[in-house]
């Protein structure tokens, strides 16, 4: 069932708020014949930060410099493709139905129009991990070592991506009277009909940015001081991100399919928390010892001969 909160169910804040967060008036700009979307730039910035931070963390463990780029050549495209597939499946009424032409790349609302927004992190995680596993097997690197090195970078990348939602004025929360309420253009198709034009909304993008930023610091500390290895740091990432996403997803207004009273992404976030806890517990029992090498057994690089 598709959920879209009725206007009558939403509170109408008073109009005497003293402060608010404005939304950008533009979401793209022209560069010659190209249209550059800030949404895409935010995602690109996140990918670059994640790759640089992961490279730094892997090289500290003895992995050759920038081998993470080789892994990213498959992991990143698979992450984007699966992120889009996940979004289209969980919002298929936005793309399929009478009068829609979802397969025409030149039509608004096409399944191919990823520049319009609509990629899901849970799909990205599935595709990215699959691509990383394939490349790690080819390169002789433990997937657990890569995922642990990646965890702080990927949560920061998600924070960068949320700024794209701010530029697009999308995925905001319920109306609020808080001084950090988010302004949304009343002509925006996502603006709930029937509400006053100066209604402010919960800036869920900002909540997630702050939560993910804190999560990055927590993950870096855990990895340095408690030596979360063998995939346990990635498990902690799933727990931290999933716990926050349960909250932010529960106050968002954008339509979403509901299963047993919860939005599909809430279920996905609950699944992420459960999977993260399972990874931490199982890997702690299987590998109480430190993960001394980031390489698969027998795939360690040969030492260079001394001069």
TrEMBL record:
- Pathway the protein takes part in: Protein modification; lipoprotein biosynthesis (diacylglyceryl transfer)
Give the top-rank taxon of the lineage listed in the UniProt record for this protein.
Bacteria
- What does the record say about its membrane topology? Multi-pass membrane protein
Q: Where in or outside the cell?
A: Cell membrane
Alphabetized InterPro entries for the sequence = Lgt
Gene Ontology MF term list: phosphatidylglycerol-prolipoprotein diacylglyceryl transferase activity
Q: Which GO terms describe its biological process?
A: lipoprotein biosynthetic process
Q: Does the keyword Transmembrane apply?
A: yes
Locate the transmembrane regions by residue number. 36-56, 68-89, 109-133, 145-164, 205-223, 230-248, 260-282
Q: What is its EC number?
A: 2.5.1.145
Q: Which residues are involved in binding a 1,2-diacyl-sn-glycero-3-phospho-(1'-sn-glycerol)?
A: 162
* PANTHER family (alphabetical): PHOSPHATIDYLGLYCEROL--PROLIPOPROTEIN DIACYLGLYCERYL TRANSFERASE (PTHR30589:SF0), PROLIPOPROTEIN DIACYLGLYCERYL TRANSFERASE (PTHR30589)
Membership in a protein family: Belongs to the Lgt family.
Function recorded in the entry? Catalyzes the transfer of the diacylglyceryl group from phosphatidylglycerol to the sulfhydryl group of the N-terminal cysteine of a prolipoprotein, the first step in the formation of mature lipoproteins.
Per its record, how is this protein called by name?
Phosphatidylglycerol--prolipoprotein diacylglyceryl transferase
**Organism, scientific name:** Brevibacterium marinum
